[in-house]
Write the structure tokens for this entry.
Amino acid sequence: MEPPGNKRRATSYDVARLAGVSQSAVSRCFKPGASVSKKMRKKVMEAAEALNYQPNAIARGLITRRSNLVAVLVSSQMNFYYPEVLFQLTDRLSELGLRVLLFTIRDEADVETSLDQVWQYQVDGVISASYLSVDQHRVLTDRGIPVIMFNRYFADVPTTSVWCDTAPAVSEMIRHLRDFGHQRFGLLEGPAHSMVGADRMRNVRRAIAEQGGTITASVRGDYRYASASEATQDIMGADVRPTAIIAANDMMAMGAMDELKAVFGKSVPGNMSVVGFDGINSARFASYELSTIRQPIGRMADAAISMLIDRVEKPELSPERRVLDGSFLQGTSTGPARV
Amino acid sequence: MEPPGNKRRATSYDVARLAGVSQSAVSRCFKPGASVSKKMRKKVMEAAEALNYQPNAIARGLITRRSNLVAVLVSSQMNFYYPEVLFQLTDRLSELGLRVLLFTIRDEADVETSLDQVWQYQVDGVISASYLSVDQHRVLTDRGIPVIMFNRYFADVPTTSVWCDTAPAVSEMIRHLRDFGHQRFGLLEGPAHSMVGADRMRNVRRAIAEQGGTITASVRGDYRYASASEATQDIMGADVRPTAIIAANDMMAMGAMDELKAVFGKSVPGNMSVVGFDGINSARFASYELSTIRQPIGRMADAAISMLIDRVEKPELSPERRVLDGSFLQGTSTGPARV
DNA sequence: GAGTTTTTTGACTTCGGATGCAAAATAGCT
DNA sequence: AGCTATTTTGCATCCGAAGTCAAAAAACTC
């Protein structure tokens, strides 16, 4: 039974002394591609073992200028999409020996303070699945910190980003609804500033224009479940009622389904159809089984990480955008139009 | 337009030179309680501003032996409880100037590698909402790293932990069910090794023993939504069918509700009642409106953090357990027993 | 204004590893 | 063995900020 804790943690010098070698030797033994003889490695490793030595990542980071830290920014909004993205990113980064420094963003002000921290902690890079203004983005890149935007980008500024193209899947989705006889669509859009939402709805409008059908109402929500309630009432309260509601994300689609059932006595898909975007796990609950446009989150995470690593190693790489296609996932929230 | 990036980032020396003072002076200006004259502070701050200087947290951590990093361990299991805890912890830690180093744990092996990283990154402390063995816990505390267990503790080893006592709320919940005339209960338990689940079900059994009623079946799930499907079938397939199902967490309760509706044609609460534990956000969706025993996650996070900070400042503090009471939250998943 | 106390300031050392370079050790070759 | 080519190893210095301590400056006293 050792006296717990108080003893200082072992340093490379301690290991060196015990092993009877120099500190540099110890350092080399813990560096992957270094030139060390077998004997040396054995001696050092034994001493390290005995002292419970592990290199100090902080000290290492100071000299190598590589912290192996990646800042991940996610919105703390109640939208289950974010945790999924976060966990996917974290799992994968861990496997590559990179640590996640997590920043949850509630509002604009949070972003500013987070960016200061990002800078102070010498992160190797940033993956942002949260809102970031062009200026904020530039502050980071100007300072030489690679930034990858997850599922967002700037229209007018080159940005390294992963993006999910929903156009083909939306087209498929509208065809699916049209085949079911739907003609009148209510749109539950995202917030005004959301480019993801704007893009999704642009695709929806285009597909409807191409394939036929009318939009009976278009209302904004804030991507959260709760916001769908009022939005659905607005949609249903319009002059003409739709037979299908298309929501800009799954959370709102779920909210819309529940509102339709609870308040309007509609069954889904019996009387109304509902579709969403994202393909989050909770949309697969049997109570919803949402027809939705699924983002390949895992593959998007891989893409983001690989672009990030490329840029950590070669900072001069120019911005790049990787686009993955979303896919239409048919659930049971869509069925024949009941007029 | 500055030449982007390539320039080295400014250090305290650069600022000192520009301001015409010593490096120590710069350092002091960035330390809260230091003695600096107004003139000096002004000069330094202007220079810092001009150079876009922010102290290097890595270098600072090296000398102060305080990284201001807190490792947060959460299970990456598909259980929405974890993201909620994580986000609560992160929001609060950020406000206190502490950064979250996130570790998602898939399995035992992940824990081991994570602990190595925790050690290497000189975190100031660890908050674990994930499985941790007694040995793993001891490795950390022996090394002098404060560990706070979130919603778990060891029966036989003193542990600093936050815990939610569900006993009174469970008693209330059973009374609620008894008042509705329920006599036969099916238990959907957690995995065998889960002490949280064991504790919850112990309280349930005790309350039933005290207030009357029989347990028709007791089946284990793994806390995930999907596991409730088979478990519910087992419960419903037993010799005697219950009128209410008590699940060890909300995810499984939701799964049970859906299984009852979809496969057994039961309505909830029309034909069967279902209750859960946790009080996660998704249990509030209108499709579920689960009656559940709610954990005060926010307050638990506060408690965990305050205990952590206490121990970072005074490592010699002995283990402490803070216990908060859960509360019974009545939803619409419970109603009169229909025999 | 000289003498004393208090506050500010700067020179220097420290934290714990990584690395360039030269010395030492080993291997390779005739 | 003798001598060169190649590894290994250790020394010394660096990364960037913080803290110690004594010198310098400012603030008080009488």
Observations:
- The first strand of chain A starts at residue 69 and ends at 75.
- The mean pLDDT of chain A is 93.
- Chain A has twelve helices and twelve strands.
